[in-house]
Amino acid sequence: MAQDQDNFRDSIGTINEDGKRAWIYPKKPSGKFYEYRKYVSYVLLAFLFLAPFVKVNGNQFLMFNVLERRFNIFGFPFWPQDFHLFVISMIIGVIFIALFTVAFGRIFCGWMCPQTIFMEMVFRRIEFWIDGDRGAQIRLSKQPWNAEKIRKRALKLIIFFIISFLIANVFLAYLIGSDRLIEYITDGPLQHVSTLVSLLIFTAVFYFVFAWFREQVCIIACPYGRMQGVLLDNKSIVVAYDHKRGEAENGRKKFRKGEDRAALGHGDCIDCFQCVNVCPTGIDIRNGTQLECVNCTACIDECDTIMEKVNLPKGLIRYASEDNIEKKSKFKFTPRLKGYTAVLVILTGILIGMLFLRNEVEANILRLPGQLYEHKEDNIISNVYTYKLVNKTTKDIPDVSFKLMSHKGTINLVRHQLFKVPAQGLAEGTLFVEINNSALEGDKNKLSIGVYSGDKLIETATARFLAPRSYK
Ligand code: SF4
Ligand code: SF4
């Protein structure tokens, strides 16, 4: 018996007994949470579509140009030299997700994840509009290929393809920058065939995900979903069925008008299966927390509607922890949560400090490998270096020059003494540092070199200077 009850764990919600794909036809959700989720999705979709086209101080608001290794986050440009900031941000992100998941389960999946938002709030709603609700969709899938089915399938394919193409364009704007995307569009796609091919590949991937793969992304592919087992505990708040109330002593039972369920020992669940029918991942939440559940709240809304109809209190399925259901205990800030929060606060403080200390110009001056020093006339020792200056701003830096700060000596550039570092670009070259040996303190000296724009010191760099041992 116990084994029978647990057999839902033997396979995932989208695989049938023959091991084949069980296509899910969820009922169209409706209710308080669904309305809230719609508003949240409108805001997030607007953000997602606009973020690559908004500029802050001339920088794209969000850009992840992996190919050229340039990133803009909230309008701040980041270069490969800022990799340490990227690593700390990633660690903060992971801890934040862990903290959030320990406390609130998969709430992110249901309310904020782009996959759920596109699937449930864009593609699924178009599907409801074209194919109708659950019953009509099941009928349509079973009926032979007639004019109605061909028309509906073709319409869906075209609309899904157009939206996938749109998403692929936005995705590309994040990847190569919106300015370049607009430039490519105005030039005409045939001028940029390789980009067009990439765009069509992205479109095909999005189409595949939203038209066919669907909820399996959350169940099979998403690593965050797989982590739930280790992150959740009895105190985590998740979408949960109140089995105490729903089952009582003698279990759930179909509703009969006028029957005194409490006296018969039956719980409040009237076994109407509406929570199962509405679930986009095809599970029965009454079996408990399962890896498929994306906390989309559709079953809460559906069960509340049923409870209202049969005059029972709402909240049989609700946001609750196992402890809340079992022991009626309230949410507690556990030591585990406190630990995560402390680490999160410390790391966020470090990141903010590093962001403030971060230079807009990065200078690297390195001795030319394999070169020693040159002993010139008048006891002058010369070392040769390569320099690389990165300008992280959106403005050119003019009249750049180097000055020796730690020693009396001269710096000679191979080309011009003054040069320009282009906006969001770099300047590199070779320079010689010449110091009179009497000013040196040994065979290895540490130099401090100032980088100036006009008279303004914009960055300092250090470098080693070699001198002959016998001249000490
Ligand atoms: S919707 Fe509510 S009453 Fe109906 S089966 Fe689900 S839990 Fe039971
Ligand atoms: S069980 Fe409920 S919350 Fe979880 S995915 Fe299904 S409908 Fe959404």
TrEMBL record:
GO terms for cellular component: plasma membrane. Residues 260-288 form the 4Fe-4S ferredoxin-type domain. InterPro entries: 4Fe4S_Fe-S-bd, 4Fe4S_Fe_S_CS, Cyt_c_oxidase_cbb3_FixG, Electron_Trans/Redox, FixG_C, Helical_ferredxn, Ig-like_fold. GO terms for molecular function: 4 iron, 4 sulfur cluster binding; metal ion binding. The chain crosses the membrane at residues 39-63, 83-109, 157-176, 196-213, 337-357. It holds the Pfam family Fer4_18. SUPFAM superfamilies: 4Fe-4S ferredoxins. Keywords: 4Fe-4S, Electron transport, Iron, Iron-sulfur, Membrane, Metal-binding, Transmembrane, Transmembrane helix, Transport. NCBIfam families: ccoG_rdxA_fixG. This is Cytochrome c oxidase accessory protein FixG.
